[in-house]
Write a structure and sequence with these properties.
By secondary structure, the protein is an alpha+beta fold. The protein has helices at residues 2-17, 19-37, 43-51, 56-62, 67-72, 80-96, 99-106, 111-119, 138-149, 153-160, 167-174, 177-189, 320-357, 369-397, 403-428, 430-433, 442-453, 458-473, 478-485, 490-521, 535-559, 567-592, 600-623, 628-638, 650-658, 665-670, 683-696, 698-710, 720-728, 734-751; strands at 194-197, 213-221, 224-239, 246-254, 265-274, 280-285, 295-306, 359-360, 363-364. A hairpin with a 2-residue loop joins strand 2 and strand 3. Helix 1 (2-17) packs across helix 2 and helix 2 crosses helix 20.
Amino acid sequence: MMTLFILVIIALLVLFGVTDIRRQFITKPVFSFFRKVLPPLSQTEREAMEAGTVWWDGELFSGRPDWQQLHSMPASELTGEERAFLDNQVNTLLKMLDDHQTVQDDKDLPKEVWDYLKQERFFSMIIPRAYGGLDFSALAASTIVAQIASRSLTAAITVMVPNSLGPGELLAHYGTEEQKQRWLPGLAEGSEVPCFALTGPEAGSDAGAIPDSGVVCMGEYEGKEVLGLRLNWDKRYITLAPVATVLGLAFKMRDPDGLLGDNKEIGITCALIPADHPGVELGNRHNPLNMAFMNGTTRGKDVFIPMEWIIGGPDYAGRGWRMLVECLSAGRGISLPALATSAAHMATRTTSAYCGVRQQFGVNIGQFEGVQEALARIVGNTYLLEAARKMTVGAIDMKQKPSVVTAIAKYHMTELGRSIINDAMDIHGGKGIQLGPKNYLGYQYMAQPVSITVEGANILTRNLMIFGQGATRCHPYVLSEMEAVAMEDKDQALKVFDGLLLSHMIHGGRNALVSLGSALTGSRFNSAPVAGDTAQHYRNLGRLSANLALMSDLAMATLGGSLKQKEMISARLGDVLSQLYLASSVLRHYEAEGRQQGDLPLVHYSVARCTHLAAKAMEEVIRNFPSLPARWLAKVMIFPIGNHFHMPSDELAQQVCDTVAQPGVLRERLTHLCPVPEGLHDGISEVESAFLALHKQQPQMKKIKQAMRQGTLAKQAITPQVIEQAKEEEVITDSEANELMTAWTLRTAAIHVDEFATL
């Protein structure tokens, strides 16, 4: 028996260790197999991958994340100028906003708000200072948009769009110097209002299929015959289009007469066109879920423009898709995640306050476990969103273009924002559904699908982008193997592929062993960069990273090109990667915040939720995997004794609720994107003031309840009448009664809803 074992070992060493034998019996058959099954890359897919960079997502895909790299990333910090802008210009703007008036009555921001936004250069955060812009960091842009969104999504989206994908960013990155001098100063000061037209009736998420055309031809411009483009387009859902003075346009450029050369299908191109140029149609508005931000259509028929209006000049003809992908991968990580995190901060501040002022059956509703379950989700997910927001914009400020990471942020953060608002609505009950100046949730609730559908619909983002790009772009070997297989020199291709394949096999074997060993030992022997309370989280994430790497290899090896069509499988694998990213951001945030002990319930809750969802997604991948042998192997290696990752316990959920049950530094950190400036009188300020006032009266309320237990006062809910009786019985002093009555008046105002004589 021993002799047979030794012979097998020797045979394996010869088979894998002798280069010629390995290439003949292993590499050549696998090479041929790869040529057949590896998914082909379309031109748009290749450009999307080349436009982005691999960042922390690559570490998570590796099966052995470098946690020191995570911890060594510089913490994102606002500059003094950026903080001053928040403290002054943003706070001033918040006091000017009346979202109910804007949405319900005016259907637009007031003129004074538009003027203030332009005057204070809110639209210029991404424009370089040399052209009059603020040139703020991604963190600052995210924070500013988020704070505005806590009071008005209409105002936030109005500010967000010029600072995201649009003419300003495209010009700053790709424009000629002449184009920058012509447009950027006006965009910075607000005399020019931009919009960017990409989506049309026949092409939304599939931007590569846009039918809008630009045909190279000769035409007249400023009295001269010049080379240019004859444009035809029909676009919709274009934010700021009804008020824009300059239109960015994406179209397919063609040169049927060969005026530029032999290439007749030049490809997607971007141009910048003044809104008053002959033939440009702007003005008709959409009604996006009753929100008042400007959104509408633009059309043009046989509109001639000179070639110099192509963004970047004629040299950038056909390079529009690459430009859009590069800018969108950054903007997707700033704007919509900021809106989702803002909704979470606002929901945490208001819902925790409401739980402290609203009573049922004589006790605050925050004491009911059913409410605590929903409140814990709100608070725990808010901590997670803030962590993911800071980590994602931090990458952008590090000049990364992590397209997979920003897709993760866009999809999962907007979905969490929607979930949080739903929970907040459930807790508020009737107060959440009666619209009016007092209602701080209603318009947020109505507008959540806006974030879900734009900048790549969430279904597309989850099913096609996250794992679809991640599996190829972030895997340590697959993209290189695909490039090797595509090489024209077959001998050189086989040589390159052989080295990659050997490394890939070692990589796969290591991940299989780590997966099995971690499952059998509960990850106890995996490495962790820290000791103490969070060490086990790192060990669990290391295990799940190895699981993802192993399952990805199995999926690509057995499904090959058909993996693209197995969207449910690839979406769940994307969910595993996404939850690993979100959990990583929580652990990094905890370290960056100085390992605050008060944050630990939030860290444990968030990471436990992420690991549970990752393991559940992996379990569903295995259960639905079409290859029976691969399914059996994956189950043995990944869950040999079952899935033991669970959602946070009830006890932990109650600890999370305790973090916001009273005013304090932790609650302020959790809600800082929903500030309450002095002098601001709105529904948020109203419920916050009542919460703070009642908290200060806790000693007096304890005296009254003690008197009830002793029989001095009848047992009943505290009301103004009870307060008066307590004063008469000398349970509390006159001054204490007055203070308590004032707090109770604030409470009454906070729990009331708006009513109208007529609508």
